[in-house]
């Protein structure tokens, strides 16, 4: 039996047939309009070259100072790793660990794994550990926040201009270049690399009637995107789960206890949000005394100092976004728990928005990290992190974990099965995508 290329929407579960796309095209789900996959014109050779350049830029950014301050002949500079060390020594180990993971470790894992697998594909080989490393890329990509760090660096520089003379260092330009390179790297989906690996390691043809038969819908691997038949409990050993045949990830019909875990994480985040805004996030010790700064006071500082744009950015990222995420995820969990049929498409769009803006709440944490490391002028002025920073960092992480635990397919479960047009009926030869599945490109949209 021939093997058909199938793809299941990760947001509503609708099954589609894949069609070849051009370099700047993307295919959307006929049901919820989420992006199923994108076409890429970059082969393994080009991808390996860009990743290698990004790794070199990443090393420069880590070892070179980002900015230097000068006050009355005293100078203070900071690298990203040095700023993390300062936080660690000030008993802010949790904040330091999260900043280290999101700005150093996860980007390093993504770049290193991508270089390894693309060099192998360039040589026409699937190197050992191929599937595990691509799974690591998918996980690390969600938590890497280089672009947020770059905005945080720029805000810190503007903030420091009123305190001292600011001298730009090579690390700033390296982070700017790294942000641009990672934007291209992120546009290249790991699933495209999995498909290239499948061509080098051909698997047995899959009977599509067996895949879709038996009265059970197929299972989707959220790591590599492979659609697998649901073998049922009678085909599995006791107390064991079915695993993906390609990347060995455990397969589930829906995320286990998705709603319960989402509610637990949201409740913890809501409780911590109160001290995050009431407690100081920074302490300033200077010749003029001691000053406590909360998130709100930081917004007021930028507004009164003639930087309303920066005040608006911090207010949106640190106040509006966390509250909106808590409210939006609570609405999604509540309606999914009640199996509501109310506006499933609009709720799916809301979930996408929550996923997109979630990481930007870390902006204030990155500003605090750099500010604490830079303002080290002995008896003149020293800034240290406060307990509010720890609480706020925990809020950001908990809300991001809550969005990961929530399964958006629960939104569509109560809406009933998809329209008969998707997927199309089985035929001896694989047809093109359904006419209602629009393929978008830079030149427009066509059916």
Characterise this structure.
The protein is α+β, with helices and mostly antiparallel strands and 447 residues long. Helix content is 52%, strand content 12%. The strands form five sheets. The protein has a four-stranded antiparallel beta sheet with strand order 4-3-13-14, with no helix packed on it. A hairpin with a 2-residue loop joins strand 13 (439-441) and strand 14 (444-446). Residues 204-208, 420-439 and 441-447 have low confidence and may be disordered.
Number of helical runs? 15
What ranges have pLDDT less than 50 throughout 5 or more consecutive residues? 204-208, 420-439, 441-447
Percent strand equals 5-15%
The biggest sheet amounts to:
4 strands, antiparallel
Helices and strands in order:
Blueprint: E1 6-8, E2 15-17, E3 26-28, E4 35-38, H1 44-63, E5 67-71, E6 74-78, H2 80-89, H3 93-122, H4 130-143, H5 146-160, E7 165-168, H6 170-187, H7 190-200, H8 208-212, E8 219-220, E9 227-228, H9 258-278, E10 282-286, E11 289-293, H10 295-304, H11 308-337, H12 344-357, H13 363-374, E12 381-385, H14 387-405, H15 409-413, E13 439-441, E14 444-446
Helix pairs in contact: 1-3, 1-6, 2-3, 2-13, 3-4, 4-7, 5-6, 5-13, 9-11, 9-14, 10-11, 11-12, 11-14
């Amino acid at each position: 039996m021939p093997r058909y290329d199938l793809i299941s929407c990760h947001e509503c579960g609708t099954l589609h047939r894949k069609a070849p796309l051009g370099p700047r095209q993307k295919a959307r789900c006929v049901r919820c309009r989420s992006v199923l996959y994108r076409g890429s014109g970059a082969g393994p050779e080009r991808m390996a070259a860009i990743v290698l350049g990004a790794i070199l830029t990443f090393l420069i950014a880590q070892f070179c100072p980002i900015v230097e301050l000068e006050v009355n002949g005293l100078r203070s500079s900071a690298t990203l790793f040095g700023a993390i060390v300062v936080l660690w020594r000030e008993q802010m180990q949790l904040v330091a660990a999260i900043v280290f993971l999101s700005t150093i470790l996860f980007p390093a894992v993504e770049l290193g794994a991508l270089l390894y697998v693309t060099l192998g594909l360039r040589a026409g080989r699937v190197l050992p550990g191929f599937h595990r490393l691509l799974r690591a890329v998918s996980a690390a990509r969600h938590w890497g926040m280089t672009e947020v760090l770059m905005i945080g660096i720029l805000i810190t520089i503007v903030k420091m201009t009123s305190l001292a003379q600011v001298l730009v260092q090579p690390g700033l330009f390296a982070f700017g270049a790294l942000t641009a390179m990672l934007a291209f790297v992120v546009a290249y989906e790991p699933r495209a690399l999995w498909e290239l690996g499948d061509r080098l390691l051909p698997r047995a043809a899959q009977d599509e009637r067996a895949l879709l038969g038996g009265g059970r819908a197929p299972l989707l691997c959220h790591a590599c995107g492979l659609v697998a038949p649901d073998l049922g409990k009678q085909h599995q050993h006791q107390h064991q789960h079915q695993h993906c045949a390609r990347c060995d990830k455990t397969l589930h019909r829906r995320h286990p206890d998705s709603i319960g875990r989402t509610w637990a994480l949201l409740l913890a985040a809501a409780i911590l949000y109160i001290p995050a805004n009431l407690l100081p996030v920074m302490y300033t010790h200077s010749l003029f005394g001691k000053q406590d700064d909360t998130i709100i006071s930081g917004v007021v500082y930028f507004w009164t100092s003639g930087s309303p744009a920066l005040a608006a950015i911090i207010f949106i990222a640190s106040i509006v976004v966390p509250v909106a995420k808590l409210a939006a995820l609570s609405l999604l969990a509540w309606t999914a728990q009640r199996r509501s049929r109310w506006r499933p498409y609009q709720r799916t769009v809301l979930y996408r928005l929550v996923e997109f803006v979630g990481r930007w709440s870390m902006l204030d944490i990155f500003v605090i990290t750099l500010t604490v490391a830079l303002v080290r002028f002995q008896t003149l002025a020293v800034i240290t992190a406060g307990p509010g920073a720890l609480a706020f960092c925990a809020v950001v992480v908990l809300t991001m974990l809550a969005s990961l635990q929530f399964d958006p397919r629960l939104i569509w479960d109560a809406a009933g099965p998809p329209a008969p047009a998707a997927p199309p009926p089985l035929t001896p030869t694989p047809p093109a995508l359904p006419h209602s599945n629009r393929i978008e490109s830079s030149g427009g949209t066509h059916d």
